Amino acid sequence: MLDKQAFLNVVDLTPLVSIDLVIRSETNAILMGERLNEPAAGYWFVPGGRIFKNETLEQAFRRITRAELGIELEIEQGQLLGGFTHLYDTNFAKTPGIGTHYVVLAYQLRLPLSLDQLPSAQHSGYRWLGEHDDLSRVHANSLAYFPYLR
Known about the structure:
This protein is of the alpha+beta class. The protein has helices spanning 4-13, 57-69, 140-143; strands spanning 16-24, 30-35, 44-45, 48-50, 79-88, 100-110, 123-129. Strand 2 and strand 3 form a beta hairpin. The longest helix has 13 residues, at 57-69. The model has no long low-confidence stretch (mean pLDDT 93). Keywords: Hydrolase, Magnesium, Metal-binding. Residues 12-150 form the Nudix hydrolase domain.
């Protein structure tokens, strides 16, 4: 694992690759968590996480679903929505002048999750949000998934 400064250098110089989990309810709402960390702290955002060096997509998917949802799922259980670009003016360390660039593989899953049983390490709370709800606090990068509800 890289120390904080080494990882900040990576964030400054390269794009990161991550997986977003677009979890849909029976009513087509999307699971959103209120982010605790930068980038996007304070916004509603879908669960997800970075893919680590030497980690396969399948391994990353299992690790991320376990960490973000509390259940380990296989990548075949999701449907790839596509690749997305997420650009932020901020970074995990809040260092001025360094933005964060993610190349995101978004996977859609339909799961009946209980909000009170979801992990709290990355999000202060969870909600199901549909396209007709107030989406003003949903980050633009997560808003990109709402057209896939139709």
